[in-house]
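Explain this one:

_____
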Amino acid sequence: MTSLMPGRCGKRMDVEEAAQDLRRRTVAGIERPLDRLIYLSSMRDYNTGIYYHDGLAAQFSQDIASEALAECHRQAFYELLGSSLGELVSQLEGYLAATHTSAMVFIAVWKRLEPYRVAVPVAADRLSTELLFSNLKVAMAILEENLTSRSTGQQAA
């Protein structure tokens, strides 16, 4: 039994090293937690929950890369969960701007399809997940109101 312990410890160290590499090379360049959450969720196979990153897997192993991606994904989730409503609105505005999509189309699709639901980590607890969904819905309503107000104000001018 003791022979397994160094392997576990070594694997955990490898996961940490891979996660640090991912944060340094990739995730650090993604400023907003919302963008990081969506990016990292896109690295996951929605059928299996396994994350894929060829470069990380080539440097470490597929198993280590998947765990490192999952760890970074959880970190982005909890960082986003800790955002205030004002910060969430700002992040949604930034994400919207990066999509180069009409604001009203974006809002209509996000309200109808709720794509953020597939962006949460598999291991996220239900209460935290529902809190994030609720906060995102409120932030979307605020964003929609802000955009409508700006549009109405521009038409009046």
Q: What stands out?
A: Residues 1-6 have pLDDT under 50 and may be disordered. Residues 150 and 156 are 10 Å apart (CA to CA). Helices lie at 4-25, 33-41, 54-59, 62-81, 85-99, 103-113, 126-156.
